[in-house]
Specification:
By secondary structure, the protein is mainly alpha-helical. The protein contains 18 helices and three strands. A three-stranded antiparallel beta sheet has the order 1-2-3.
Length: about 350
């Protein structure tokens, strides 16, 4: 039986190949358009368009078109705002259709983190969860990163109050930039340490350290970078405008077993403790694991408008547990006992 989890893995594998090696598959022009329009950390890599996504287009738009235009005392016209607006509207068009599934089903960096976590589970490495105070402290970080690194600093740099390196500060630090290029056997992003100004050198050092942290942390913690990713914050700000959403109905036994939270890669306690709109938390990536590991029929659903795409079910939950625990640890299948032969 093809489970939801396996369908997602298949989608991840296909989009991983397209979005990491897209430049080689589709050529420069299409790869550039795909990279800059897709609302996930998906750089359709080639030598010309590596490290591009919606966020870099947004940062460049603020830096070059809005900031520099104001600095030169030019009139803010449609010619300046239209490219940035078009980039955002393209993102929104994708997002309205598929909501936050871009994070859990398509983003190559998210896929790599899942692979590393699965490796850590198979190596029996200790599991580190974010709960209580630690979780509360981490959750606002993605909003700070979005506001500071994606929106404010590029605008400040465009106004002339900083070096050119401030044109895309988030993308200078983003580990997706490292992961996607290294997967194509290109080590330039990791080895290049610019010396032309302090900001470029600082970004290069920070990028290497963040990349190393994510790779190591992903072995013992689920989706460490996703928790602070500004793309997740941007998705969260608009998650109510899409007809695709996570739906949870009220149930007497909810919040007693907590299995859905244990299954959640983002350690979201609201999915077990709340229902309705509150259960669809800003950190949710719509991976569907909470619905897969809910032990009751029809409590948690993935819906597109009135259409139910997937719904929790007791029988599905039972079969799911035969292969994997909620925290992602694979279940070891015992070999059948050998029957003694007639000679024995």
């Amino acid at each position: 039986m093809m489970t939801l989890g396996r369908v997602r893995i298949l989608v991840q594998a296909v989009t991983f190949l397209v979005l990491v090696y897209g430049g080689n598959l589709f050529g420069y022009y299409l790869a550039q358009k795909l990279s800059q329009s897709f609302p996930s950390l998906a750089c359709a890599f080639n030598q010309e368009t590596g490290a591009y996504c919606t966020l870099i287009s947004l940062q460049h738009g603020l830096y070059h078109r809005v900031g520099e235009g104001y600095q030169m005392l030019q009139r803010i016209t449609v010619d300046m705002l239209l490219p940035t607006l078009f980039t955002f509207l393209t993102f929104l068009a994708f997002f309205v259709v598929l909501n936050k599934t871009f994070c859990a089903w398509i983003c190559p960096l998210g896929t790599v983190q899942e692979w590393l976590y699965a490796l850590g589970r198979r190596l029996s490495l200790p599991l580190r969860r974010l709960e209580g105070t630690a979780l509360a402290r981490v959750r606002p970080v993605k909003w700070v990163v979005l506001i500071a690194l994606v929106l404010v600093i590029p605008l400040i740099g465009g106004l002339g109050y900083g070096p050119h390196a401030l044109v895309d500060p988030f993308c200078q630090l983003c580990p997706s930039r490292m992961v996607n290029t290294l997967l194509t056997a290109n080590v330039e992003q990791g080895l290049a340490v610019p010396t032309n100004d302090w900001a470029s050198a600082a970004f290069a050092a920070g990028r290497n350290m963040l990349f190393g942290f994510v790779i190591v942390a992903a072995l013992v913690m689920r989706q460490p970078f996703c928790r602070i990713c500004p793309m997740l914050a941007l998705h969260a700000a608009f998650r109510r405008v899409s007809p695709l959403r996570l739906v949870k109905i009220q149930h007497d036994r909810c919040a007693s077993c907590g299995i859905c939270t244990k299954a959640c890669p983002m350690d979201i306690p609201e999915i077990s403790a709340c229902h309705g709109a509150k259960a669809f938390h800003a950190d949710c990536t719509m991976c569907g694991r909470c619905a897969e590991f809910c032990p009751d029929d029809g409590i948690i659903k993935l819906k597109w408008g009135p259409v139910t795409l997937f719904s929790s079910a007791k029988e599905y939950f039972r079969r799911r547990l035969q292969r994997e625990k909620p925290d992602g640890t694979p279940v070891k299948v015992k070999a059948p006992a050998r029957r003694p032969s007639a000679a024995e």
